[in-house]
Amino acid sequence: MNFEYETERLILRLPSTDILRELLDFQIRNRDLFEKYEAARPDNFYTLHYQQSVLKCELKLALKQQTVRFYVFSKEEPKRIAGTVCLHNIMPVPYSCAEVGYKFDAACHHRGYATEALAEALVIGFKDLQLHRIYARVMPENTPSIHLLERLGFRLEGLEQQCLLIQGKWTDHLRYSRIRPTL
């Protein structure tokens, strides 16, 4: 696995503390968007100290290939985080699977960045990490995310009732998966 990957328009990088201030800015400017889909955050989440801890932890997990989060930058704005894509809960054989998650800056929506970054994450997962199966959870009302997954060949497996605690409420999620293509 590499520390950096490139697609036609994007750069995907593993975490490093040189993006600390940009990460905090990314989180703050998208707070309202992200919080409606994520677990409640600690009081100090929107601080440099907390984000630095996150970056250090994410790098350690990536090196162990337990969780691999890539920070996504457009080649047009290589200093500004456009989003993240993450393979987490990576389980080795006999499961050989991981869950994928992603989030993109509101200013980057409808540019195809999520499609391009997630497609590259699938290649990394299936080729570099040798995963057999990659799955995703999505809230039923999040139709843009559902369309993204379907566009990339994920298939609906079913509904997981009250599977995630989001902002203090147990929420249902649709579960999608994709199996490694045969070579």
Keywords:
single chain, 183 residues, alpha+beta, 5 helices, globular
Structural overview:
This protein is an alpha+beta fold. Helix content is 31%, strand content 34%. It has 5 helices and 8 strands. Strands 1-2-3-4-5-6-8-7 form an 8-stranded mixed beta sheet, sandwiched between helices. Strand 4 (81-91) and strand 5 (97-104) form a beta hairpin. It is globular, with a radius of gyration of 16 Å.
Strand order of the largest sheet: 1-2-3-4-5-6-8-7
What is the residue-mean pLDDT, rounded to a whole number? 96
Percent in strands: 25-35%
Helix content: 25-40%
**Biggest sheet architecture:** 8 strands, mixed
Radius of gyration: 16 Å
- The number of distinct β-strands equals 8
Coarse morphology = globular
What is the first-to-last residue Cα distance?
A: 19 Å
SSE string, helix = H, strand = E? EEHHHEEEHEHEE
Chain oligomer state: single chain
Which class do the helix and strand fractions yield?
alpha+beta
Low-confidence runs of at least 5 consecutive residues: none
> How many H/I helices?
5
